[in-house]
Amino acid sequence: MSPLAYRRPPARRKPGSVGLPYGCRLGLVIEGKIIDGPVSADGRLRGPLGPGEVAVKGDNVFSGYWRNPKATAESLVDGWLLTGDLGEIDEDGYLILSGRLKELINRAGEMISPKEIDETILLWPSVVLAAAVGVPHPLYGEEVVAFLTSSELIDEIALSAFCWQRLSPWKVPKRFYRLDDLPKGPSGKVQRLKLVKVYEELAARGQGLESQPPVSGLCVSDQNSHGLTASLGADAVGPPTAAKRKLEVVVDFETCKGCGYCLELCPNDVFEPGQGHNAKGYRPPSPKRVDRCVGCQVCFLACPDFCLEVKDWRPGVSPAQA
Ligand code: SF4
Ligand code: SF4
Are residues 87 and 96 in contact, defined by beta-carbon separation less than 8 angstroms? Predict the structure, then answer.
């Protein structure tokens, strides 16, 4: 008897898992090698395992694409079908899918699964659908942006701060675009790669990453050729926000270790690389465009050395005294 056969369904159901392998062997591609799991020859479970690309092997797996040896060679390796799905195997041998390999965002070599970002944005009460994608970036190769549908307008800055509280800094989308609907395939799944095309159109019209994020909270509609309505930051609509306050951004020149987090993560490009070095030889950044600051506190939260402050500007009081 196959080591898997005695575990065949029905078996215990686990929320979030697609279940146990049945009728085929299950493996994960990890660091270029197919790890055969989750059951070894003697029937012992090998999980937890992964994440990695899900691979399957067995008599019920197809033997190749019709008249397409190139595609066959790319997807079949030693009889294993590389599915293109990403997944993990838990300690009981259950498979948990986490997305598609092609949809991973490669930001400066950091492979980011968009699913976690989608799930975070979906926690926002009015958001109905969300999809994070990687879009071209001159420095990082790819940068994270997110598309969403929502029952009401959303303050982009507030949503960014919301994500900041729940995601690692490099996973927080740099821009959010609100659409009437997201492109979906026949199965109803959101087609992320089409969203990259939507982004390219927006970027061509000056509404990409380099555009100025909104300074008050709001969205305006803008028709694109995909028949979707993109909502982007604007300064004419929405409630007064932190941007209406006048703020002071203060970097402690001597304490700063020049890690550049504030420079990199500020959503409004307030900072510029500094010109001088401090006594420790580090080069603190300079908050040059402080008029853009909206007080989101992202820089303050990111600074590992507590040497940065964002506070209300008080006339006649120097930052050091405030
Ligand atoms: S609070 Fe910091 S991160 Fe936020 S906009 Fe101002 S300078 Fe940038
Ligand atoms: S995050 Fe803090 S330590 Fe790093 S460059 Fe900015 S001010 Fe300096």
Answer: yes
